[in-house]
Amino acid sequence: MPFPDRYDVLIVGAGHAGSQAAIALRQRGFDGTIALLGDEPSLPYERPPLSKEYLAGDKPFERILLRPASFWDDRRITLLPGQTVVEVDPDAHTVTTAEGVAVGYGTLIWATGGVPRRLPCATHDLVGVHSVRTRADVDRMIAELPAVDRVVVIGGGYIGLEAAAVLTKLGKRVTVLEAQDRVLARVTGAAVSQFYEAEHRAHDVDVRTSVGVSGIEGAAGVVSGVRLVDGDVVPCQMVIVGIGIMPAVGPLLDAGADGGANGSDGVRVDDHCRTTVPDIFAIGDCAAHANAFAEGQVIRLESVQNANDQATIVAKTLTGTPEPYHAVPWFWSNQYDLKLQTVGLSSGYDQTVLRGDPATRSFSLIYLRRGRVIALDCINRVRDYVQGRALVTGSVEVDAAVLADTSIELKTLGVAAIEH
């Protein structure tokens, strides 16, 4: 595939972060050449629907495209699909693709996200074993589903539970295996975990916590079950592995960028998303940054919101109006008829407040640290989510009894804090 010798801005990674960086640059009047290089053959698309509407068949691929093909042409954004960067030369300002083609850049924006973590077993490549990261991953699952009765989902995080909900609605018998003592343990409090475990069990999902997986079994190259550490085998015709991602930052670290020893921590960026290598930025799932809503800890945020916000920060820097990244994190998850919306980061909380009754399937769990609101998980409770943002951004100190009182709107607490 022929490439121009050089682009003023080369963006590696055509997901949410990379696409938004290109869009934001044009929105802010950047007139130089821009290329968006991605390792998938398709136009840039939304990833969150993959484990929900796309897997369920509710949305065709065309409806999850970030923009139509004409959009990129109209804005003079060159798409370079189906390409993987394997080397970065910061001195020559070039990247090299797996096909051996060198592409030059004035500024490089690294937005590669990550690749799914694999189970440490040779049978991970059996037919019927899947991750949920790309359109191709889900297309393979959809093609196999007519012959599938039983599915095992390894990992009780958002991706695993979303896939379990969809597959159950499609009539499959689903088992969820979680190594920790509750689902969503890394991201929510116990009340939310218990609620979702009960919901999935009410939909006939076999949720098992505190279980370890020793391997995947199969015959003639096709999966037949998942073996647990206690020797039990859970029979199935499909396995979905949802145990997180590894940031795709190898070429950047090899080029001298600061990051974890093995890349598991991503690549370190400053508050303008610059790496330690000149003229190279990193954004999205792969970028480790000091986050004010995590008490300044260096973290990676795997969310569309973070991807978009960091992309905008880089675009502002490159168009002469720099500002530091300081956006309150938010997330969402759809399972069955439940909409979970999260604002803030609950890590490090020392108190939780239950607002509403989980039995009504509409409630919020509010997280506090040293008496101040740091995050909310809102289930079918949009008003709390919208109004609670001010409590998080203002690090508002509120009495727990007041927060629990559903007759008091959260917006009044936020306004009072701002005025005070």
How far the N terminus sits from the C terminus, by CA atoms, comes to 61 Å
Rg estimate, integer Å: 22 Å
Structural class: alpha/beta
Strand content: 25-35%
Regarding quaternary structure, what we see is single chain
Number of helices: 11
pLDDT averaged over residues: 94
Helix content: 10-25%
The strand count comes to 25
Report the major sheet.
7 strands, mixed
Shape summary:
globular
**Which stretches are low in confidence, meaning pLDDT under 50 for 5 or more residues running?**
416-420
What can you tell me about this protein's structure?
A hairpin with a 4-residue loop joins strand 5 and strand 6. The chain is globular and about 60 Å long. The protein is an alpha/beta fold. Helix 9 (382-393) packs parallel to helix 11. It has helices at 16-27, 53-56, 69-74, 135-144, 158-169, 190-202, 250-254, 304-318, 382-393, 400-404, 410-419, and strands at residues 6-12, 34-37, 77-80, 85-89, 94-97, 102-110, 114-116, 129-130, 150-154, 173-178, 206-209, 213-219, 222-228, 233-235, 238-241, 245-247, 267-268, 280-282, 287-290, 298-299, 330-335, 338-344, 351-357, 362-369, 372-379. It contains eleven helices and 25 strands. Strands 1, 2, 3, 4, 5, 6 and 18 form a seven-stranded mixed beta sheet that branches. Helices cover 25% and strands 30% of the residues.
